[in-house]
Amino acid sequence: MTSVLEERILIGPAGTIERAAVGDGFTPTRIGFLSDMPAGKALGEYLDPIILAIEDALAEGRMRRPVELLASHVVGLPTGQPNNVIAAYLDLVERGCVLVLSTGVTDNALVLRDTINAAKVPLITMAGTTRFVGDYCFSLANGGHGEEAAIMASYLADHGLRRVVLTGERSPGDSEYHRFFQEQARLYGIDILTEHYFDQEPTADEVDTVLRHFRDDLRPDALVYCGFGWNSSQFNPALTRIGWHPPKIMNAAIMWALTSPEWKVALDGWIGIEQSIGDHEDLPKNLNWVALLDRHEKRFGYRRNDTMIALLYDQGRAAVEAVVNAPILTGEGMAAGLERIKMIPSTLGGPRTYIEFGERDHRGYKGDFMFMKQLRDGEFHFAGFHSPQWAVNRTAEAAG
After folding, report:
1. Domain boundaries, position 107
2. Most buried of the four, 182, 298, 306, 396, by CB within 10 Å?
3. Confidence check: pLDDT of 230 > 80
4. What is the rounded CA–CA span in Å between residue 16 and residue 26?
5. pTM of the full structure
6. In the prediction, which pLDDT does 112 show?
């Protein structure tokens, strides 16, 4: 259940690639890439921003050693089997990778955690779980379960949406979302009237019945979705069928809209967690974002105003810093190299986002790396940064 990229991808200073290809000179440092997304882009499009990140570091003179990328796509959870993901990771390790970059489904990250720590070859995931922990588990997260819950609860409080119903999915990762949202709701004075978690593919009748109960019996101020998002596309059609149009607030599951035009239609109107400020938005942007899109378009011939490009580019840059910082080019050395990353530039997020790891601190994004956006007519539109404020100050400001 794994597709392995057979093409050899070598990136290095002029002259080193030719020598490496014939076995002369320095052997390239092997870095793996593991895609475990159940839907999305072709493997090559995931690799383009990583290749560009390494080429940029070479052009800057930041790194001089050649790198070889080895890549696989695996059918893991929720649609495949957990053993597929373990086998794919171990295959990259056995082929000589000293660091593995990845996309990141929370379920698969949790499946891999013990294997990664035993193999002592670090993996950087995009999964938002806080339970991907250990000496060799690192994240540059596409969201963050606890952080998303805090931003959502604050947004609801700011907009006076204090009586909500909570829904989502039944899975290990989604239970983490739900727990965090319950805690943040208490902090921000949000009343959860009821919770209902669906299977990952509920029937239309089940969704309609639950939403009618929400509307008719509870009359909430807003409908809140916290989950991986595999079933999130079923809600808009159900809301249309029953004729209910509440405010709709979602976690980072809204980023499924980045995967296809169909997903954009399915999630239209929702306000959720996103991580990049698009070309079409006249707002202060991350200083690295537009320049990256320009170079990416020049290098690969296409421009995609897409958070995934930033996530992957940042992984590539973190990999370079790990190589540069590593005391020895082994898995253990690369983990140590990652932990020495301090306040390097981020491409993801708002103007004040940066990347930093440390001992026992393996969650890399810091600052305004998430914010609220609404999906309207196929485009994300900025809806607000998270501005943490204690309730007593919020009340005083409103009275003021």
Report:
1. 2-143+286-367
2. 306
3. yes
4. 8
5. 0.93
6. 97
